[in-house]
Amino acid sequence: MLIMAWYIVGAEIPEAYAIALVNYAFAIQNEDGGWPTYTYGAQSTSLMGTILMYVVLRLMGFGAQHERMIRARKSLLSMGGAVHLPCWAKFWLCLLGLYKWEGSDPYPAEMW
User: Fold this and answer.
1) Of 39, 38, 55, 36, nearest in space to 47 by CA
2) What torsion, rounded to 10 degrees, do the Cα atoms 31, 36, 95, 110 define?
3) Which of 34, 38, 70, 86 is deepest in the core (most CB within 10 A)?
């Protein structure tokens, strides 16, 4: 979510951070192409972890045809896609313009 926040506010991601984050993301990617929501210990793939990590890697410049991105996309689609996310994950996608606000839960004005 830090990368998404940096992207939204237009902050520059330091190159060393970007390299370390990509290396870490690929190191914890599961065999099925997905990622867990929480990264401590051995964790199974989750829809939320997979979609958020997929979006972050795309924001950092990885193309949709990259081998790891293809595997991730197959994984997240096999779990039903973004419509099955919890509201706070949909919130991040809405902020990025990747999901329609109408498809998410209402949020209190204080969020803005």
Assistant:
1) 36
2) 180
3) 34
Exposed (0-12), middle (13-18) or buried (19+): which is 102, by Cβ within 10 Å? exposed
**Look-up of token digits 């293809």:** 70
- Its pTM stands at 0.89
Phi, psi dihedrals of residue 31, rounded to the nearest 5°: -55, -35
Average pLDDT of the residues in 86-102 = 93
SS3 105: coil
Residue 107 φ/ψ region, left for φ over 0, alpha for ψ in the -120 to 50 degree band, beta for the rest: beta
Q: Domain extents for the chain? A: 2-83
pLDDT tier, 54 (very low <50, low <70, confident <90, very high otherwise): very high
Largest Cα separation within the chain, whole Å, is 41
The 3-state DSSP class for residue 46 equals: strand
